[in-house]
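Quick start: what a row looks like.
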Amino acid sequence: EVFETTEKSQVIWETLGVEARATIIETLGDLIEQDQELFNLVVYEGKRTFQDTHSEVREAADFCRYYALHARQFMSTPQGLPGPVGERNELSLHPRGTFVCISPWNFPLAIFIGQVVAALVTGNAVIAKPASLTMHVARRAVDLAYQAGVPKDILHLCTLPAKDMGKVLEHKNVAGIVMTGSTETAQTIQQILSQKKGPLTPLIAETGGLNAMVVDSSCLFEQVVQDVMTSSFRSAGQRCSALRILCLQEDIAEAFLTLLTQSMNTLHIGNTHHMETDVGPVISESAKKGIEQQIKSLKKRGTLLHEMKTPKVGDYIPPQVWKIRDALDVKEEIFGPVLQVVTYKSAEFEDLLHKINALGYGLTFGLHTRLESHIELVQKIVRAGNIYVNRSMIGAVVGVQPFGGEGLSGTGFKAGGPYYLLKFLTERTLSYNTTAAGGNASLMMEV
């Protein structure tokens, strides 16, 4: 029934035109920035710190304005193409139909809004499936979309449990799927689509990563320590972009780790309702138990270097640092504030980059160095969607650091980048023999 509604309404939404749709989406961006209830929901339901929530609200509004801008550029007028005299050739972009947007709990507002407005502004209808843990954030965001002027028949909030989503994804009217989540979830969706009858359905996926940062002996210790703590422990390590494997040149490893563990003790761990909190709890009790099981496995192959104290009540995982033997020993992502450290010899720098590639993921990569030769090697060798040099590995800004991975980390194009909207569109060409009307009007105009 929902698909019948969206199929009919989508044609009207498309006919409305890109200028009207873009204006509505820009209005949504304004409402998101102004809405205190939405901010509070992200803090309380999403367990985000005030600093993280402020950044997330900004990112959501940025998505609205950035995609509105690019939709106008892509879709306002057809693109003229070269051709022979007496023939007019044009390329135009059109919406695909109905998109299913599947978003995670760790960015309950920004990723949800980014997916939804990308589909809407390009003229598609949307069935939005947020994570059940942050359903109230999504519901408030949808209400604001309706206030901005998005028709209710065009945007539907799906509250089905994840286990029942298969029957939605299999529907013949699903024209595209965009999801952010685990690699395993993306692979499951891919399998469902391979069995789906009807038109082929594109999948836009942004998944996880085993993200590494390589630090050589030319680095600035104080800067690296701050960037490592930010990349590893911000949002309690619950970012797909978070640093998981720190690779230290062995010449500096001991001194650096001493400074790192001392600096970690300055972090304030507590409830995200408090302004001073740097690291909050993980999202749920089940998430905590899952991370604790992974830590038990980590004890068999690593040595605990430092672990912070946490409040006794709540779903807290203490920020911690482990020494391990080899980067290839890391087989899975621990989605929490758990940092694993390996050391390498100076002569092994290039081999280390190949080893990181061999993990199969390609989301974020960090490098701290003052050697241009190392920067050039990283650019040449590393296969990662986002490479960060001498800065933290999180906090990609819309339009500045388009975000997305390759390999096991996603399908591209990058969210918040100039080509992202193209995946929500289909191309059509028109070739018109103008001489059939009795002449070539374009030649007459040039006289």
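That is the whole record. The first helix runs from residue 2 to 15. The chain has 14 helices and 17 strands.
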